[in-house]
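User: Let's play a game. I give you a shape written as C-alpha cells, and you guess the letters that built it. Ready? Here's round one.
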C-alpha cells in the first residue's frame, strides 16, 4: 500500500509513518520542518526504497500539487491519505488580543491544508478505491481557555470529513480520528526530543490508566484504511483513553 502522511516527520505523524514502514508499506512523509525531515532520512535510511521524505507546506496549493505529482511519479499511485499536518500549539492567548494573521495561519494549515490535500489526491484515490483519514483532536469537542483558533480548525476537520464522505462515496471512504493526550516527546526533531516526564497522576486521569502513544492512533488508522472497514465512512473516532467521557468537578 502507498500511504501519504502529511506532518509525517514528527509527532503523531512520525509515529504513523514508523508503524506503516515497519509493516512494509510505502510511505511519503510530507513536512516543512527541515531538521525533522533530515533526521527521518537518516533514521529510516534502511527503508529508502519504501520511504520518500518531501517538503510541503500543505497550506500552499502549488506545493500540494507538486507533492502529489512527486508521490505518483515515485510509487505510481496513492492508496491512502492521512491528513495530519497542523500547527499543534493550541493556545494563542486571549481572543481579544489574537492577531488575525495567527488565526488565519492556523486555519490555513489545520483546515485548508486538509481540503487541498483532499482536492489533489481524489483523482488517484478514485482509481485505487483508496481511503482518507483526517486527524482532528478532542479539542473539536471540548476546550481549554484561549484555544479558539485551534478548536475551530479541528472542528472544521470533523465537519469536512463527513462532507467529503458523502460527496466521494462510494468510491472513496473518508473518516476522522480525534486523538486525546498522546505522548509525542520521543517523536520530535532531535533538538526538541525529550524523555517522558509523565507522572502517575497524568496516567491516572485516563480511565484506561495511561496516556496515549502514537501507536494507539496508528492502530485505528490501520483499521480505517483496510478492507475490514469497508462499511465505515464519515465517522469521527475519539481515541483518548476515555477522558472525554469522564466528569471532572473542581474541589
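Assistant: Ready! My guess for every position:
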Amino acid at each position: 500500500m502507498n500511504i501519504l502522511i502529511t506532518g509525517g516527520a514528527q509527532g503523531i505523524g512520525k509515529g504513523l509513518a514508523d508503524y506503516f514502514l515497519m509493516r512494509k508499506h510505502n510511505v511519503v512523509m510530507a513536512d516543512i520542518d527541515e531538521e525533522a525531515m533530515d533526521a527521518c532520512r537518516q533514521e529510516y535510511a534502511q527503508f529508502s526504497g519504501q520511504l520518500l521524505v518531501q517538503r510541503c507546506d500543505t497550506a500552499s496549493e502549488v506545493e500540494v500539487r507538486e507533492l502529489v505529482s512527486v508521490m505518483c511519479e515515485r510509487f505510481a499511485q496513492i492508496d491512502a491519505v492521512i491528513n495530519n499536518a497542523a500547527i499543534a500549539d493550541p493556545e494563542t492567548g486571549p481572543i481579544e488580543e489574537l492577531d488575525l494573521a495567527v488565526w488565519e495561519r492556523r486555519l490555513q494549515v489545520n483546515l485548508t491544508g486538509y481540503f487541498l490535500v483532499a482536492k489533489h489526491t481524489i483523482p488517484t484515490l478514485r482509481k485505487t478505491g483508496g481511503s482518507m483519514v483526517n486527524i482532528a483532536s478532542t479539542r473539536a469537542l471540548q476546550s481549554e481557555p484561549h484555544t479558539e483558533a485551534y478548536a475551530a480548525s479541528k472542528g472544521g476537520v470533523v465537519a469536512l470529513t463527513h462532507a467529503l464522505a458523502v460527496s466521494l462515496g462510494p468510491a472513496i471512504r473518508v473518516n476522522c480520528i480525534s486523538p486525546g493526550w498522546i505522548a509525542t516527546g520521543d517523536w520530535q526533531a532531535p533538538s526538541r526530543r525529550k524523555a517522558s516526564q509523565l507522572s502517575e497522576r497524568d496516567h491516572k486521569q485516563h480511565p484506561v490508566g495511561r496516556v496515549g502513544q502514537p501507536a494507539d492512533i496508528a492502530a485505528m488508522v490501520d483499521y480505517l484504511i483496510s478492507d475490514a472497514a469497508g462499511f465505515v465512512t464519515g465517522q469521527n473516532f475519539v481515541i483518548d483513553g476515555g477522558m472525554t467521557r469522564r466528569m471532572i468537578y473542581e474541589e
